[in-house]
Amino acid sequence: QVQLVESGGGLVQPGGSLRLSCAASGSFFSVSTMGWYRQAPGKQRELVAIITNGGNTNYADSVKGRFTISRDNAKNTVYLQMNSLKPEDTAVYYCNSHFIKQSWGQGTQVTVSS
Description:
By secondary structure, this protein is mainly beta. The radius of gyration is 13 Å and the shape is globular. Strands 2-10-9-4-5-6 form a 6-stranded mixed sheet, with no helix packed on it. It has strands spanning 4-7, 10-12, 18-24, 34-39, 46-51, 57-59, 67-72, 77-82, 91-97, 108-112.
């Protein structure tokens, strides 16, 4: 059974940084395009960034230039470095395979507030 475990969230002031991690079990990881998603209260889950198994990346316009997605296939882990955080980045962040969704993990809460 595939498991996705997100970590690294927390409370941070505007302009601050956080680094999220997502550890995945299962052999699907190394061949999958992985994505980070987020869901703010009262809103639908949205795509934040994706990274292919070869390392190509793409970002939502709202985070471009501030967030960086990366992966370590040897560790079955995908990361999201978030800089210059804004209050509107507040959400629960999740990772998942982009094209063939696995069961969602619990996510990690990111709160940007002064």
